[in-house]
Amino acid sequence: MTTRRSTPDVTSLLRTTDRTLVMGVVNVTPDSFSDGGEWFEQEAAVAHGLEVLAAGADVVDVGGESTRPGAERPSVEEELRRVLPVVTALVAEGAVVSIDTMRAEVARAAVDAGAAIVNDVSGGLADPGMVPFVAMERLPFVAMHWRGHSTEMQSRAVYADVVADVVRELAQRRDALLAAGVDEDSLVLDPGLGFAKHAEHNWALMAALPELHALGHPILLGASRKTFLGRLGRDEGSAPRPAAERDVETTATSVMAAMAGLWCVRVHDVASTVRALAVVQAALDHAPDEPTDTAWGDLDR
Questions:
Q1: Spatial distance between the Cα atoms of 18 and 280, rounded to a whole number of angstroms
Q2: Catalytic-residue membership of 266
Q3: What is the distance between the alpha carbons of residues 96 and 85, in angstroms, rounded to a whole number?
Q4: pTM strictly above 0.70
Q5: How many Å separate Cα 107 from the centre of its chain?
Q6: Catalytic residue among 108, 225, 226, 241
Q7: Reading across the β-sheet that carries 220-221, which strands appear in turn?
Q8: Higher pLDDT, residue 84 or 35
Q9: How many angstroms separate the Cα of 196 from the Cα of each of 44, 147, 168, 171?
Q10: For this structure, is 226 an active site residue?
Q11: Which residue among 19, 174, 197, 266 is the active-site one?
């Protein structure tokens, strides 16, 4: 007999400032860039979600639509078929579940099944029903920097200054969401690495992570296993390292996020990031109360 875990309070997770949280990915898709098809069947997806939870994830992010460049969208019915049984099963085991969807109908059904957070890579732009639903229900909402669907987004990767442009566009989206009634204390922002961004854009954002605090909201970073990490150490023109072999690089981005004081990182391999963040936390716990030129004690926690 399985003993049900006690579910953490999502409000307290949103207010966490003394450490960086970990969101574990459960892709219930046949075509995601990292693990497409591996967890597509319901039983496999639930088992993987429980592994993610056991590895130390604070939130389990369940998604039924691939957002890799060029991906075609599934029907609403198919997305619901993929995610609802998985959300229901993981919530029953005590997981804080976020639903990764751009569709209000899917978000509503997942929340009815127990999902506590809506993670929308379009920031509510893809479906006009999403923001009214989230606002009415006062749900925690993750809004990502977005310039279009997967089939067209890379053609829009044009920036004068990617850091300034992303911060400005996210600020505009934040203001629109708050004006539409989204709860200010429940809004999380995501710079959208890899979405309408080439490698040089992703690296510029990684180098400027502390600047994202100017937005005034918790920041979620999703760098996990993305292609720009897979190109490190590879000859120009050669294929990037396979997605499943990018966890070392991913862990490094998680450490960078933690050192920059970001709220949460979204990763595929939870165990490696949890262990790495424990190292960061141990160092920060021993930092002097007053920052010095040589200490890491000046993070905005």
A1: 11
A2: yes
A3: 15
A4: yes
A5: 16
A6: 226
A7: 187-190, 141-144, 117-120, 97-100, 59-63, 21-27, 264-267, 220-221
A8: 84
A9: 31, 6, 15, 17
A10: yes
A11: 266
